[in-house]
Write a structure and sequence with these properties.
The complex is a heterodimer of chains A (307) and B (313).
Chain A lengths: L1 H28 L13 H10 L6 H13 L14 H36 L4 H14 L3 H15 L13 H31 L2 H8 L4 H13 L1 H25 L4 H11 L2 H29 L1 H4 L2
Helix pairs in contact in A: 1-12, 4-5, 4-7, 4-10, 5-7, 6-7, 6-10, 7-9, 7-10, 8-9, 10-11, 10-12, 11-12
Chain B lengths: L6 H26 L3 H11 L1 H23 L33 H37 L1 H15 L3 H12 L3 H28 L2 H8 L4 H37 L11 H10 L6 H28 L5
Helix pairs in contact in B: 2-11, 3-4, 3-11, 4-5, 4-7, 4-9, 4-10, 4-11, 5-7, 6-7, 7-9, 8-9, 9-10, 9-11, 10-11
The chains are: A mainly alpha (307), B mainly alpha (313).
């Protein structure tokens, strides 16, 4: 097991390095500099600014400087929000994103697995058809469609919940964003869980368990649930990436002060260092999470470990 | 005597014979049984949800292509007397107008053109790169395979949407960039699937026979392996299309995709969501088109999978 974990992280580290390198050199290949604005700066001032941001050094030196700073956890100054470093901006916004992201992820997995299992247990009943029809609808409702629809229904028409804002993270302000982020992946997980649970329930060892006279709920929780979770676990990686990606849209729609708004504004303002820093942070998170999912997969399924 | 018959007669005789042979072959094929593809076709057309979806998609497809010419309005023309007007038959603004007075019917369909184009071209790129990469890796095996798979693994753990946003930040917005980005992301799963299939095909007799005949590896991959994985490729390609449409809409929603005055469903949903309190139709029509299209593509993909995927038989 330990060997497997080490091996898995041995892939994760170079992946992250490749991501950082590609992102960094893409930034350098971009035409123009972030300081070519409407107003042309006098050359001396431009020179000073470039010196401040190390842009006057040769490329490889800039690269190693950036890597060195990164190793110390320093993402450099923001090009557009003067007086702020990328770290400052992250410190303000990351907790917000982390909070709604993790709540959304938890709900996605728990509710998705539960309703998928229920549908499998009630296979071919009205309940199953209703759940699956809802899931099919959920699968085609991306966050950028569901978010405005939720606002329209629950905020503008019914006045049940606020249409946007954060307000320190009170729960009323989190309901709609979390729902918008979670629905699509919840629906996918429900579909995956249903079909894998049906497959498991038809297998021989479940028949044996029933023949032994075990109560139904014990069969489900002790024998069927764990193997049926395998396909869901392998989907957790993509779901995580999807929820993080969706958070960009959701944060924009609901006006939440998370990293998503910085990403979009950074992209529109051409704030290179901010977008680069965010890409690297999110990339690192993604890579770390995929590695954890792979390890989790090996925990559930011993076959993987010994391959 | 044959050499005395006039040229024309000879030709007629040959073509008669060819026709007869063809008839014979057709008849005998019908007796012998259905081919793999005919079988799949039958199974697909028995699936009501998939067929209905296919018909709806065809209608939307035709509408998207010819629809903009049916309306007297241009997609970027401003109608000053109808700003943010609700749907109205008389002024032939069938879906109403947006905040700038541009006809929403035409804009929705123009947006559909972009979405369909991105979806279908994107899937094609994925099929081409993914199939070739996967088949090559699977057929070559050994170290080549290991290296190619490592590359795939690294690419797969990239957060691509963010890399695309990074690209957009740097090079400005353009539809070409979106194509490039989508092409880069979408072939990964395809390659994985094709590789798996190829490995299982590699040991089969007909491949061995081809190798014994001295066929070059490239020819074996293109002539013998690719046609045999086509079924599964078609299934995954059809499931990729809605994914591509989503990807583009997502970027356009954020304002990072297509540029004004051109539009796409994502951009229209964004505009609509900003004015939904006063002008619901500006959100409703693009959302309806986008959701129905995604819905139908998913059902068609499911239908194709049931029809073509050997696993479920």
């Amino acid at each position: 097991m330990l060997k497997f974990i080490i091996k898995r992280f041995a892939i994760a580290v170079p992946t992250l390095l490749v991501l950082i390198t590609i992102s960094f050199f893409l930034m350098q290949a971009a035409p123009g500099s972030p300081f070519t604005g409407e107003r042309n700066l006098p050359p001396e001032i431009l020179k000073n600014i470039e010196a401040k941001y190390n842009l006057d050094k040769p490329l490889y030196q800039q690269y190693f400087l950036y890597l060195g700073n990164l190793a110390k956890g320093d993402l450099g100054p923001s090009f557009k929000y003067r007086d702020y470093t990328v770290n400052d901006l992250l410190e303000q916004s990351f907790p917000v994103s982390l909070k709604i992201g993790s709540v959304a992820f938890l709900f996605t997995v728990i509710i998705g697995v539960t309703i998928g299992t229920v549908a499998a247990l009630k296979q071919n009943t009205v309940l199953d058809y209703i759940i699956m029809a809802l899931a099919m609808t959920g699968v085609v409702l991306p966050s950028f469609v569901i978010a405005p629809l939720l606002v329209l229904i629950f905020a503008i028409t019914l006045h049940w919940l606020p249409a946007g804002g954060w307000n320190g993270g009170e729960w009323q302000y989190m309901v709609l964003p979390v729902t918008a982020m979670a629905i699509m992946y919840m629906a996918s997980i429900a579909r995956i869980q249903r079909s894998s649970m049906i497959e498991v329930l038809n297998s021989n060892y479940i028949r044996t368990a029933r023949a032994k006279g075990l109560p139904w709920h014990v069969i489900i929780t002790r024998h069927a649930l764990r193997p049926s979770l395998l396909p869901v676990v392998s989907y957790l990686g993509p779901a995580f990436v999807g929820i993080i990606t969706g958070s960009v849209v959701v944060e924009t729609v609901f006006g939440l002060p998370g990293i998503g708004q910085h990403f979009v504004n950074g992209a529109l303002n051409r704030d290179y260092s901010l977008v680069l820093g965010l890409t690297i942070i999110i990339g690192a998170l993604t890579i770390l999470f995929t590695a954890i999912v792979d390890i989790l997969y090996a925990v559930i399924d011993p076959k993987i470990r010994y391959q | 005597m044959a050499h005395l018959t006039p040229e024309a007669d000879k030709k007629a005789a040959v073509s008669n014979f060819a026709d007869a042979l063809e008839n014979q072959l057709d008849n005998s094929l019908e007796i012998e049984g259905r081919s793999l593809w005919a079988d799949a076709r039958m199974r697909f057309f028995r699936n009501k949800a998939a067929v209905t979806s296919l018909i709806i998609l065809a209608i939307i497809g035709v509408l998207v292509v010819v629809g903009p010419w049916l309306s007297p309005h241009e997609f970027d023309a401003i109608d000053w007397s109808y700003m943010a007007a609700p749907p109205d038959m008389e002024s032939s603004h069938w879906f109403g107008t947006d905040a700038l007075g541009r006809d929403l019917f035409v804009r929705t369909l123009m947006g559909g053109r972009i979405s369909f184009m991105v979806g279908i071209l994107g899937a094609l790129v994925a099929v081409l790169i993914g199939t070739l990469f996967g088949a090559t890796a699977g057929y070559a095996g050994g170290r080549t395979d290991a290296i190619m798979m490592r590359i795939l693994e690294i690419l797969q753990s990239f957060p691509f949407m963010f890399l695309v946003i990074l690209l957009v930040t740097m090079f400005g917005r353009s539809i070409m960039l979106i194509f490039l980005a989508i092409g880069a992301v979408s072939w990964l799963d395809m390659a994985r699937i094709v590789r798996g299939q190829t490995i299982s095909l590699k040991g089969r007799e007909f491949i061995e026979a081809a190798r014994v005949c001295g066929t070059r590896p490239s020819a074996i991959i293109l002539r013998h392996i690719v046609p045999n994985v086509l079924g599964i490729v078609v299934v995954y390609a059809s499931l990729l299309v809605p994914g591509m449409i989503l990807f583009e809409s997502f970027l356009s929603f954020l304002g990072l995709g297509v540029q004004e005055p051109m539009t796409s469903w994502g951009a229209l949903v964004n505009e609509g969501s900003q004015s939904m309190e006063v002008a619901v139709w500006q959100l409703a029509f693009p959302v309806a088109f986008l959701v129905i299209t995604l819905f139908c593509f998913n059902y068609v993909g499911d239908g194709l999978r049931d029809a073509l995927d050997p696993k479920d038989r």
